[in-house]
Write a structure and sequence with these properties.
disordered N terminus; 4-stranded antiparallel sheet; 455 residues; 35 strands; globular
Length: 455
Amino acid sequence: MRKALILLLFLLPASGMWLSCGGSPSSSTTTSGIKNRAFVTNNVSSGSGVAGVYIVNADTDVRGPTAPISVGNTPVMMVLTPNRAQTLVFSGNGTQFSDNQFSIVNNAREAVAFHLTLPGMTESFVVSPDSSAAYVAVPLAPVNGQSQGIVGAISLSSGGIIGVADVPAVHYLSISNTGNRLLGFSDNSDEVAVITTSLIATGNAVTYIGGFDRPVSAFFSSDDSTAYVLNCGAECGGTQASVQKLEMTPAQCQPDGVCTPVPVPAASIALVSGSTMYMAGTPFSAGGGPSLFCSAGTTTTQATYCGMLTTFDLNAMSVINAAPIFITDGYHNRMSMAANGQLFIGASTCTEISTTTETRGCLSIYNTLRATTVGSVPPGGVLIPPENGDVTGLQPIAKRNAVYVIQGQGVLLGGSLFIYDATTDALEYNPNDPNNPGHINGLVGNFFDVKAVDF
């Protein structure tokens, strides 16, 4: 009975929206006529601009000739399906006026195939490897007689609800390479929820494994036998940031498969390239605030506290970098590897500096190359570009040295779209707008996320 009520809460507001859209995804050609597109969410309607998904020509850095795709009042996050046929968009700002709309956009038609209304805000949704289903974490979804929080499974071919798993306060999700398992991470919890996707409609899909320290994400080995769990530690209200192996077939570690954690300075987000994991975070004292003084390193910033990047060998389960790598402070939640070995790291709520001698916000660029200087950045060096604001979107553009970065007013308000050149780590010259390097002429709004949908 309880599970049926959860499903009803999730499905009732969705069904009306779904029926109002109707139809099935089309295989017709794009209406903009652009071969290589970037989708950008604008979450504010003002003046002549309207909220929606804007289309940019990612070859020429020119705004597309079509109107924005309507995907709710305040569209923010996007996720591209592995087959690139669809883009999933969430609209919501966490206020009582939030529409919490979840849209499935048909990329070929540049139009919405289905709308659903979620029972709350989400900051994490993932897609199955075969692009058939999406899994959405809704931490404040009401659950009859139980703690708030669900993971909802949505069919991407019909827009219908496949099933719902009750996971209290679930905030973030990670999915295995086969799609057979989801790992759910809840706020203020030292447990990982292991969700069997084939059982999500049965009500018996979830088991819990403890022994972690405020886990926030995980990366699976190629055979899915091991999940490398990122523990946020003190920065998220725990004790010690670390990387910790979870054996999905318990054998090598404790009976539950949880291995001994390997401490790292800070870790709220990570990216894996080969056997190297790059982790970013702001070191905190246990139970206190930021603890890494910028003056402790070689940086000359006027900011008091700094964040730290750590390089980690997953095969050896050990830290690679001998010297600390200083980056901006704040809560790091965006990371992308661009061309030319340039790692872009975005944060929110960082210390912003805007004086006559220094301007900095929440973007850090790390040169992963071991023997090549890029622009003014030596091998293993870090550049903090002279732009203020939170970073909410990062998208390297394939086959180019360009990186689209959204940085500006705040984690819920969005910002401006900047174009960086990964060969110089500086704003790119745009011949379409020569007086404004790094900008796209006529692209005005409060943008939040960006995705390259064609390559």
